[in-house]
Write a structure and sequence with these properties.
The protein is an alpha/beta fold. It contains 13 helices and 17 strands. It has a 7-stranded mixed beta sheet, with helices on both faces. A hairpin with a 2-residue loop joins strand 13 and strand 14. Helix 3 packs antiparallel against helix 10, helix 8 runs parallel beside helix 9 and helix 11 packs parallel to helix 13. The longest helix is centred in the last third of the chain and has 21 residues. It is globular. It starts with 7 loop residues before the first helix and ends in a 9-residue tail after the last helix. Bound molecules: pyridoxal-5'-phosphate. Pyridoxal-5'-phosphate binds next to helix 5.
Length: 411
């Protein structure tokens, strides 16, 4: 049997043949990773500021993740939710201790966590609001790709091929508190909000607005649901981004970083919102011993390694470095976000060009639209890596401005 060395050209060919074309992938075949760095099939090294889109919070192949995977793989990988298992209990306890008094339902992704939250809101409405089921969402939200979560997302671009949307979702601008209040007085039973809107370009919903939404929910007998799928797990410098505002939600959804690279999602419901009963909801894989053992390890490691403080200091250093690029005349107009969840607003439509040039210069960043770069690196990124990433990004921006070709040397 002949073995074929993995090459980008072969991967692209096989992809066209065997995979649905749902992604516009960058022309790179990633082969292995360690910490903040990944290497491609040609042996080129990159600083990965995307980190699986806010997933690899401890970096690639982190020791605690590997240890938990190996130990649990040798003990018990999967059992049905018809039975108890220890790792799920431990992960739930640690999650609740990081957040607010609540109970947890485990699933496998952010969209699934949000589906569960929507079901909680609907059942809560049946029980407490005469069957009302409206949910107020924010303009520019992103809550997932299932029909219900797409409907909550409300973005025509994502939704158009799959209409009709599920009813009951209404979108209001974040600063339109009067609009939120009117809908809550009418028939809405919940407000659904990402404390930092990641997919739309890293827009922080300011603390005063979050507090106002909390008050409006209290005044109108509605649930406040926070989607911390991207902003959670310490990324903004607190365990959960809503904690900056000093509020407590009724329901919180979690995924991405929770498994440190392993698929897992969760929804937390405070006692007043904890309405699901046996038979209401379920998931074959949700909360498997393997996934929850890793989640528990990730939660313990963030605490043990002081990574909330690290997100603050590394985030400040990264932000300063990015603003320094602007001072050098590179097209950085503003840096948005909190901690290690940053959006770089460019002053020209150069996001795609910068991403491509970044690959040539050894830094991985993500384009949102034509003018924003998203940076969500591991919380374990070192100061030296931050500085090096900024230098590489500076070169990439320089290339993008110059419209330089692919011959720019990697450095
Ligand atoms: N909610 C938010 C805020 C997200 O950023 C995402 C994914 O980017 C999701 C939900 C959906 O998560 P998943 O892709 O795991 O279904």
């Amino acid at each position: 049997m002949t073995t074929t060395a993995p090459t980008l050209a072969r991967a692209q060919d096989q992809e066209a043949r065997y995979l649905m074309s749902t992604y516009r992938r960058q022309p790179v075949l990633l082969a292995h990773g360690s910490g903040t760095r990944v290497w491609d099939s040609e042996g080129r090294e990159y600083l990965d500021l995307v980190a699986g889109i806010a997933v690899n919070v401890l970096g690639h192949c982190a020791a605690p993740v590997r240890a938990a995977l190996e130990a649990q793989a040798a003990t018990l990988v999967h059992v049905s939710n018809l039975y108890h298992s220890e790792p799920m209990l431990e992960a739930a306890r640690l999650l609740v201790e990081s957040a607010f008094p609540a109970r947890v339902f485990f699933c496998n992704s952010g969209a699934e966590a949000n589906e569960a939250a929507i079901k909680i809101a609907r059942k809560w409405g049946q029980r407490h609001r005469d069957g009302a089921y409206g949910i107020v969402c924010l303009v520019d939200a992103f809550h997932g790709r299932t029909i219900a979560t797409l409907s909550a997302t409300g973005n025509e671009h994502y939704l158009a091929p799959f209409t009709p949307a599920l009813g009951g979702f209404d979108h209001v601008a974040p600063d339109d508190l009067a609009g939120v209040a009117a809908r809550l007085r009418d028939s809405a039973v919940a407000v659904f909000v990402e404390p930092v809107q990641g997919e739309s370009g890293v827009h922080v919903i300011d603390d005063a607005t979050l507090r106002a939404l909390r008050s409006l929910c209290d005044e109108n007998g509605a649930l406040l649901i926070v989607d911390e799928v991207q902003s959670g797990m310490g990324r903004t410098g607190r365990w959960w981004a809503h904690q900056h505002a000093g509020i407590t939600p009724d329901v919180m959804t979690v995924a991405k970083g929770l498994g440190g690279g392993v698929a897992i999602g969760a929804v937390l419901a405070a006692p007043g919102a904890d309405v699901l009963e046996p038979g209401d909801h379920g998931s074959t894989f949700g909360g498997s011993p393997l996934a929850t053992a890793v989640a528990a390890a990730v939660l313990r490691t963030i605490e043990a390694q002081g990574l909330l403080a690290r997100a603050v200091s590394a985030g400040a250093r990264l932000r300063a470095g990015l603003l320094g690029l602007a001072e050098r005349g590179l097209p950085v107009a503003a840096v948005r976000g909190r901690g290690l969840m940053l959006g770089v607003a460019l002053s020209a439509d150069l996001a795609a060009e910068t991403v491509a040039a970044g690959l040539r210069h050894g830094v991985i960043v993500n384009a949102i639209g034509t003018r924003t770069l998203r940076l969500v690196p591991p919380l374990t990124i070192t100061d030296e890596e931050v500085d090096e990433a900024v230098r590489r990004l500076g070169r990439a921006l320089g290339d993008a401005v110059a419209g330089a070709g692919a011959e720019a040397p990697a450095s």
